[in-house]
Amino acid sequence: MAATHRTIEVPRTAHLHQLGTLSPATKDLWLVCHGYGQLARFFIRHFEPLPDGQTAVIAPEALSRFYLQGVGGRVGATWMTKEERLHEINDYVSYLNLVREMALQEAPNAKLHVLGFSQGAATVCRWLAQAQWPVEELVLWAGMFPEDMAMVSARQALAHTRLSYVYGLQDEFVTDEKVQEQLNRVREAGLQPEIITFQGKHEINATVLQQLKARS
Questions:
Q1: Alpha carbon 171 to chain centroid distance?
Q2: How many CB atoms lie within 10 A of CB 45?
C-alpha cells in the first residue's frame, strides 16, 4: 500500500535581530533578508551604521537551519529548498507578513525598505509579489527575481517602488549575461531598476549601504 502524503500547520518560534528602536518617530524601516547558509545575527552586523533616531533595521532569520559541514560545527539557515517548495514559500511569505505587521504596529509612520541578499533576494521578491501595501524601496543585492515568478504580479505590487540591483563586479555568482537577461525581463514588465555596482565579490559593501541610506 502506498503512503499518503498529508500536511498539518504547526506553531513554531521564529527569530529576528533588530538594530535601532521602533517607535512612532521611526521614519525608515529596513527589513533585510540574508542569503543561503547565513544567520541573521551575523548578517545584521553589516547594517550597524544605518540605525539612528529615525531608522531601524530588522533581519528575520529563515526558518530552516542546518549544519554547514557534516553533522556539527557552524550552522546556517535557508529560506527554502526544492523539497515541498510551495509549502515553504507559503510559510515564509506568512512569516514575513507577520514581521512587517509587528514592526509597523510599533512604528506606524515608517516607510518600508526591503533588501534581499543572494537567496534572500528571491525570497523578498516572492513575498512582495503578494503585497497589498506600499513598499518604498526594494534592493536586490547579488540576487534577482526568481525565473519561475510571473512578472505581472511583481509589476502590480511594485509599480510605485524604487527598485535597485546591487552587485560586486567580482561576484562569482552574478554574471553579466544573467544580469542583462534579468534587466530585459523586468523592463518588459514595466519596471525600471537602478543598477549599482562596486569593486567586490559576493558580499555586502558598506559604502553602497551608506549611499542607499542617504537617498531614503
A1: 18
A2: 12
Q: Please enumerate in sequence order all residues whose Cβ is within 8 A of that of 129, keeping only pairs 6 or more positions apart, or say none.
A: 149, 150, 153, 154, 157
> DSSP code of 41?
H
Q: Contact 75/66 with Cβ under 8 angstroms?
A: yes
Distance CA 165, CA 191 (A): 12
pLDDT in tens, 134-174: 999 999 999 999 988 878 778 888 888 999 999 999 999 99
- Name the pTM for this structure: 0.95
Which amino acid appears at position 92 of this protein?
Answer: Y
State the Cα–Cα distance between residues 80 and 87, nearest whole angstrom. 9
Q: Is the Cβ–Cβ distance between 136 and 113 less than 8 Å? A: yes
Helix extents (H) in 23-173: 40-43, 85-106, 119-128, 151-157
Instruction: List the grid coordinates of 63.
Output: 526558518
